[in-house]
Amino acid sequence: MDNLAFAFADIARLIRKRFDAERPGGLTGAQWRVLGAVVREPGLNQGQLAERLEVEPITVCRMIDRMQQHGLIERRSDPQDRRSRRLFAAPHAEQLLAQLVEPGEQLVARMTRGMDPADHQALSDLIRVVRTNLLDDMLFAPAEMVHG
Fold first, then answer.
1. Is residue 24 over pLDDT 60?
2. Sheet-wide strand order for 81-89
3. How far apart are the first and last CA of the chain?
């Protein structure tokens, strides 16, 4: 595969597919991403969460509804804006997220099978550089470039 962007997209798709097939904790990959974002940034509102996950707000709303019904996410009133609700992980959600550690490590081990430790480290370093460059482009690019 000559195009690096397509290769990254394909790798991301395959990782999601593999992860969803294993479904640790019975959650979908999308639900894991929601839970992870809420644990990392407690107090996000649904709009902010949709932006972080790059999905439509209605999609986030439906996921939050289901996750709230299963006791994973709590909606709390925003003291600054009574129309807004802030999102927080339920008390046992962090324990549930901890269940990702081992399957995640196993997936990375399978993905990097055959690499020596130096190559694995080099790949990790290079991917961090690519991610940083893309984030910098998003921060400093004109709005029309970022939003198409």
1. yes
2. 44-45, 81-89, 73-78
3. 25
Token pair recorded at residue 131:
């991610």
- 17 Cβ neighbours under 8 A, 6+ residues apart: none
Whether the pLDDT of residue 81 is over 90: the answer is: no
Question: Are both 145 and 94 inside the same structural domain?
Answer: no
What is the pLDDT at residue 121? 94
Domain that holds residue 103: 4-111
CA angle 69, 71, 73 (to 5 degrees): 95
Question: Domain of 32: which CATH number?
Answer: 1.10.10.10
Q: Based on the domain organization, do 127 and 101 belong to the same domain?
A: no
65's tokens: 């509804």
Where residue 45 falls among pLDDT bands split at 50, 70, 90?
A: very high
DSSP states of 89-145: E-TTHHHHHHTTHHHHHHHHHHHTTT--HHHHHHHHHHHHHHHHHHHHHHHHS-HHH
